[in-house]
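Sat 14:20. Reprocessing the chain from the morning session after the first attempt stalled halfway. Input below, unchanged.
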Amino acid sequence: MKSKLTVIVIAAAILGSTLITAGAAFGDVDHMKKLSDLKSAFESKKKQLNEMPNQTPEEIEATVKAGKELKNLGKEVAKEEKIVDPDSEDQFANQLRSYIASMKDSVSELKFMAEETKDRQYMKRAEELEKKIAKYEKEQQAYLSKSQSAKTVKELRKELDIPAN
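Finished this time. Tokens:
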């Protein structure tokens, strides 16, 4: 009796996880459609905004209002793009540059601390970080040059331990 119940529970769990996975996959289609709709709406509103007259105070006020609506629509487009493609290449390139710059700042801070405290540990850590920076910069150059041996964004995120925001 217990084994039958166990088999039924396992089967139900497998079926439930399959349905959840399928639902998530079909949900992506909705995000893609929503993104394309938002982008087309954004472009049309942008065109309308550029064509609006702005000579009188009322026209200027209407233009400002339309500009604020366009900005909000742009924020929605950005949110949907992040949902659809969390490993965006542009975002990754900026994130990689930011990581490298932060590590360089840390190296200079560690070297300063090493000089101030005369502690060799700080200098040792700075040297380790400089090696890491060299690796990041090497991968960045390969990625930006789009060479044959360049890795994908997902591979680089995993290898360099850079999370998708």
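The helical segments are 2-51, 57-84, 89-117, 120-145, 153-160.
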